Amino acid sequence: MKLYRGLVAATVEALQDVFVKNRQADRVVEQLLKSNKKWGARDRAFIAENVYEIVRWWRLVKYVAQVEKAVESDDFWRIAGAWQLIKPQHLEGREAPESLPEWPEFEAMNPETIAERYQEGLQIRKIAQSIPDWIDVTGEAELGEQWPAELAALNKTAPVVLRVNSLKTNVDTVREQLGTDITEPVPGVPQALALKKRINVAALESFKSGFFEVQDAGSQLIAPYLDVREGVSVIDACAGAGGKSLHLAALLGNSGSILSMDIEHFKLQELERRAARNGVTNLTTMHISSEKIIESLAGTTDRLLLDVPCSGLGVLRRNPDSKWKLKPEFLDKIRKVQAQILENYSKMVKKGGKMVYATCSILPSESEEQVRAFTKRHKVDWQFVSEHRTSPARDGFDGFYMALLERK
Ligand SMILES: C[S@@+](CC[C@H](N)C(=O)[O-])C[C@H]1O[C@@H](n2cnc3c(N)ncnc32)[C@H](O)[C@@H]1O
């Protein structure tokens, strides 16, 4: 395989944006690819793949390239070069150049030292699995023996999964449209279709017509967990851009009502666009501009979804850069926010109504323990019904937690 200087330079530029300018990897790649119309499909795939792979394996590649702290352009070139050399051993089916081109940036690089450093790095879990010390310590403390398997699974590339929109079509029709050779059903997740081959789904007419949304299979288990029945009222209080609100609307067949709320107004605007595309007619949005809004809705809803903000440690497969950006202080802070949301927002549920508390975290401290603490404080008015976890290691889904509670 031949390395092209322009493509490696583009990869280096993107990595600098992610690690020096602290920008989000998916935005950086999207913008970069838009900026050069001359790149063909293979060039684009090279840049996107290499940027995401290096971001995912950042600690390991830095170790191999002997870069302590990547600051200068030279550091990033060395990292990109080292990745080219270790990639075929590290990931199945990846091509690599036989040796690095004789570019000035690669002059001081010795392939033998790189191979030795790679073998050394593999002996140390936090380097081999490319994870910051504090996350490794937290994961082990909270998950014990299960941590190494989850950690390894979180470093795999996530599959693209679609949720077929039952308001407009059905799974068989979408399968036929996209091709039975590139789609497969996901056992236990009735509206899900996994893609066997990566395609640009957003460009498809069937996507633009609202026949499906992109949503991980684990995430697709959350809306059904709320046990909605035709005609009920639902509040989705941390609705974001509405992945689960849209699913709830489909489960309700547009009956009843859905109130989608969030503290970020721009996310609700995106939700409204998606709702229109999906043919949703039973949904309104409300921006949470103050706690008073929550108080004013006390005792008004049959069902409440609290898909709370969290560390995102269950979805690292999709957002590998977040492991480098996440800080322990944020985790402490977000646990307090989760407890407050559970405490204050649960008041919106009617007596006899139900609530789901959900996270996309693999950590019990953001999930099971929050629910245990809440039900302990609310023995009189809340009943724990059930809980479920999806596991990247066990199911191949993202790591979600969901608990169902009933108000007495
Ligand atoms: C896990 S995301 C929600 C994802 C969304 N439910 C979906 O399915 O696409 C959590 C959301 O909670 C919102 N949020 C953060 N703090 C909040 C608060 N105090 N009240 C309501 N929403 C909040 C964030 O803006 C974010 O959109």
From TrEMBL:
Top-level division of the source organism's lineage: Bacteria
Key words of the record: Methyltransferase, RNA-binding, S-adenosyl-L-methionine, Transferase
Database matches in InterPro entries: MeTrfase_RsmB-F_NOP2_cat, MeTrfase_RsmB-F_NOP2_dom, RCMT, RsmB-like_ferredoxin, SAM-dependent_MTases_sf
UniProt-listed GO biological process terms: RNA methylation
Molecular function GO labels: RNA binding; RNA methyltransferase activity
Keyword S-adenosyl-L-methionine: yes
Keyword Repressor: no
UniProt-annotated binding residues for S-adenosyl-L-methionine: 262, 307
Pfam families: Methyltr_RsmB-F (PF01189), RsmF-B_ferredox (PF22458)
Active site location: 360 (nucleophile)
Domain called SAM-dependent MTase RsmB/NOP-type: residue spans: 150-408
Homology family: Belongs to the class I-like SAM-binding methyltransferase superfamily. RsmB/NOP family.
Entry-linked PANTHER family: NOP2 YEAST -RELATED NOL1/NOP2/FMU SUN DOMAIN-CONTAINING (PTHR22807), RIBOSOMAL RNA SMALL SUBUNIT METHYLTRANSFERASE B-RELATED (PTHR22807:SF53)
Stated name of the protein: 16S rRNA (Cytosine967-C5)-methyltransferase
